[in-house]
Write a structure and sequence with these properties.
By secondary structure, the chain is mainly α. The chain contains 21 helices and no strands. The termini are far apart.
């Protein structure tokens, strides 16, 4: 393929595979994040395969330039910003199902969470600053037109971030501005400062405009900064996690066991009042699940890599931008868990891949054709990864049918759905959860329901599971110390649900689906 054709193919490939995970509107139960993860996985694999193919027989100048990635990030951020503002002003209904529908005054694009949406606008801001620094012309006439487009994009990103009312987004934009005031091009300083000013105006004006349009009082960033989160505050969450770490400091509670640990442990003080499946702080999460020694080693390895790379001395523009994107994700990881989501995993992988090699690829000599062994190995790995993703998608599809009404299921799964989904290996716990919550408790199935509920305590220790565990124990005449602990923790973790269980008002069974 001609070199120019390779550039075009790379640009299209990146445009599709990098943008799609950010704007994908589709997600199905039982795990809301599984379909987005699969979409991101297929996109990442396609991008890697395309990258490898374009490298074969290429000239000394690499056709796979990083600029295409930043253009794709900016496009994703601008598209999501437009979606978010449509949601904020109540216009998303007409765009369904391509744009997620939410209540007026909420903005999160198709990412379904305000902080993730705000982080995307921050990534878009960095991409815009990078592109403006590299490609905006110097000539006066062309400069005016180009800066007009840059200003429009800047305004859209700023208003979208303001509409999100994300405190994390506010910190990120402030951080980007500070980074631009370190040794940097004057144009970047001006644009970053203008972005922060537009964002501040949006924070003040958007709630006022929306209240004027709807006649209803609106809550923006300023109100969120003043309000108290009560028993759902991060301070309380982190205090609980630190107490859990103190109980098992060496090896932790085990990967994926934070939900169970948070439920079963009797805290000495107030308790975070929601199901806790992540510590909302990456170092703390690693420590509580893997133990202090291993988490310290992992964090130290990352810090050592950063120290060796010395981003504060980086002269290359696109590598500076990659470091800035990683800084955005790192800041977000201190208050939530973006690395559990596909788009942020892809962004992190792209940035690390860009930074891994010290020598810019364009200065490398002409490539030699890869050996047959390397090519065969790459084909085998890509085939295995693609097959694994395809199997996961198929397995999740059949299990998800359990969480749909019969008429909504695929034709092949409308009857005997449970028996068809039960062989699942990847989503066995979801199958067990569906079985437990679908069938009413009887004398005949009490033992099976009890055993299922015991297993599912580690998957989802929520009131429905706890009620089935205790009710089945009563039917079976069981009364051991472990069950008494579960009952005590049920009362402590979910006092309202516990009171309703003690004094039931709805005698109807909970069988809602046809298995």
């Amino acid at each position: 393929m001609h070199q120019h054709g390779r550039y075009v193919v790379w640009a299209v490939l990146v445009g599709v595979t990098v943008v799609l995970p950010w704007i994908n509107p589709f997600s199905t139960g039982p795990r809301a994040n599984t379909v987005p993860l699969l979409v991101s996985g297929f996109c990442a694999l396609t991008l890697l395969v395309g990258y490898g193919l374009l490298q074969r027989g290429a000239s000394a100048r690499n056709p796979c330039q990083p600029t295409a990635v930043f253009v794709a990030w900016l496009a994703a951020a601008l598209l999501s910003s437009a979606m978010g503002l449509a949601q904020y002003f109540g216009l998303a209904d007409s765009l369904a199902p391509w744009v997620n529908v939410t209540t007026v005054g909420q903005a999160f694009g198709n990412l379904r969470q305000r902080n993730q949406f705000a982080s995307l606008t921050s990534v878009g801001l960095i991409a815009l600053l990078y592109l403006a620094r590299r490609f905006v012309p110097v000539g006066r006439a062309r400069l005016g037109l180009s800066m007009g487009l840059v200003g429009a994009a800047l305004g859209l990103l700023a208003l979208a971030n303001a509409a999100s009312a994300s405190r994390t987004g506010a910190l990120q934009w402030l951080m980007v501005t500070v980074m631009c005031w370190l040794p940097c091009q004057r144009r970047s300083r001006v644009l970053a400062s203008a972005a922060l000013l537009l964002y501040a105006l949006g924070v003040f004006l958007l709630p006022v405009v929306l209240e004027w349009l709807t006649g209803l009082p609106q809550s923006g960033l300023l109100n969120r900064l003043r309000e108290s989160a009560g028993c759902e505050s991060r301070k309380l969450l982190w205090a609980n996690v630190l107490e859990l770490i103190a109980q098992k400091p060496w090896f932790g509670w085990g990967w994926g066991e934070l939900k169970f640990a948070h439920f079963i442990y009797p805290y000495s003080g107030p308790r975070f009042c929601a199901i806790l499946d992540n510590a909302h702080n990456l170092p703390l999460h690693l420590a509580v699940e893997l133990g202090i020694p291993l988490s310290t080693a992992l964090c130290a390895a990352v810090l050592w890599w950063v120290w060796c790379r010395r981003p504060w001395r980086e002269p290359d523009v696109h590598r500076q931008a990659a470091w800035a994107v990683l800084a955005i994700i790192a800041l977000h990881s201190m208050v939530e868990y973006p690395l559990w989501y596909g788009p942020f995993q892809m962004a992190t992988g792209l940035c690390v891949g860009l930074l891994w090699r010290r020598v810019p690829q364009k200065s490398l000599p002409t490539r030699c054709a890869p050996s047959v062994a390397k090519t065969a190995f790459a084909i085998v790995v890509a085939t295995l990864l693609g097959g694994g993703l395809a199997y996961t998608a198929w397995d999740y599809t059949r299990v998800s049918q359990l969480y749909l009404l019969r008429e909504q299921r695929l034709a092949a799964y409308q009857d005997h759905t449970l028996s068809k989904a039960r062989p699942s290996r990847l989503f066995a716990q979801e199958v067990q959860f569906a079985e437990l919550t679908t069938f009413a408790l009887t004398d005949d199935n009490a033992l099976r329901q009890h055993n299922l509920a015991r297993q599912l305590l580690h998957f989802s220790p929520e009131p429905r599971v706890l009620q089935k565990l205790l009710d089945s124990a009563i039917l079976l005449g069981l009364d051991d110390p472990a069950l008494r602990v579960v009952r005590q923790q049920f009362a402590a973790a979910y006092p309202k649900a516990y009171a309703q269980w003690i004094h039931p008002t709805d005698p109807a069974g909970d069988a809602a689906f046809t298995p």
